[in-house]
Amino acid sequence: MSMGAPQLEPRGRGQGHGALMDAVYRNQRHIYDATRKYFLLGRDRVIEELKPEPGQTVLEVGCGTGRNLIVAARRYPQARFFGFDISQAMLETARAKVRAAGLSDRIALAEGDASDFSAERLFGGAFARGADRVFMSYTLSMIPPWRAALEQGVAALAPEGALHVVDFGQQEQLPNAAKSVLSAWLAKFHVSPRADLEEALTEAAARAGRTATFQPIYRGYAWLGRVA
């Protein structure tokens, strides 16, 4: 199955956010997957819940190193996968990983800003009717205009599509010492867990005439959300 998606010129760098992410991950990207697998909990659960039908489109917003797309493409071999990120450095790693996995014909990548994107503009006619599945994995906590990104994710859906979100929670049932350590570590990478994520998810769903569900996991370490 050939993806043949057009690679259009990027529409800006998110007012410097792309440059910031390049600076943060220019070196980290080489060890990102190995070091983050113990911290980014719930990613594989989201992938298991995507359940796209054969031929359907799956879009990851903020695809990073491409790790999630590779796992998902192997899990659902009949679906079509797309991802974009604002960081050119991360995309360089993602493209290399996708090639190494032998999935370049099934995963298309592009540079884009999560707070202002059009899947059809980035990838062409595959998204003429919207995306069947959109997912955001530990993305919203790194995007300053994160509410805009959430709204964009909902707006990108096909009529029967679904948006899946996993991100850091407020560690509501974890010991205070663990919260302090985690908060300090996240701040080093410009990560800000969104305390009002559930409210924002519910409001975005309502504005689109959809329904939101929300669930804390791992004692509030991570939060899961879905809009359908």
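The record above closes out task 2.4. Task 2.5 opens with a second protein, given below.
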Amino acid sequence: MAHVGKYTRTQTGQLFAHYERKQNENGEHRKYKNQDIDLSKTHLNYNLCPNTKTKSQIDFYHERLSEVYVYNRSDVKTMCDWVITLPQKISVDSDEEKRFFKKTYEFFSKRYEEENVISAYVHKDETQPHMHFSFIPITYDEKKKRYKVSAKDVLTKKELQSIHPDFSEFMKRSFNRDMGVLNGATELG
């Protein structure tokens, strides 16, 4: 249903290009490892995040990083990416699909603070529609009295154990029924 990745500064450019389906200087789409991308449907992809409607993902990313403390090490994970797949219970290209992704954005942007969200691209040009919810993992350092980047402090074991049940409950309240968030792969047991 949803899985997360953590990335360093040097890895973000490739990911931003993937989210946007960047084209080269000749207008040709880049080649991706994922061969399931149907470029004839790429125009159906969209970004729900208002932070990158007026500036590029990379500009937003660098600007936000400049506002907080970041350890000066190459291994620091400065971006996280939740990939949330549309549940099988929801019909593709339906109003319910659109609402599902809007509610997904609402849940995750509240959880990780909207000012830290880089983008929320919905990809409809692959096998199953899904959202890439990318954000900068920022937390408040009580000891030093400042905001800092720390994927370790944001994506704790407790956070990873509670995300699916919390997301499932949010979706149940939003749709007045079980949306299939909790399944054999996501339930704790």
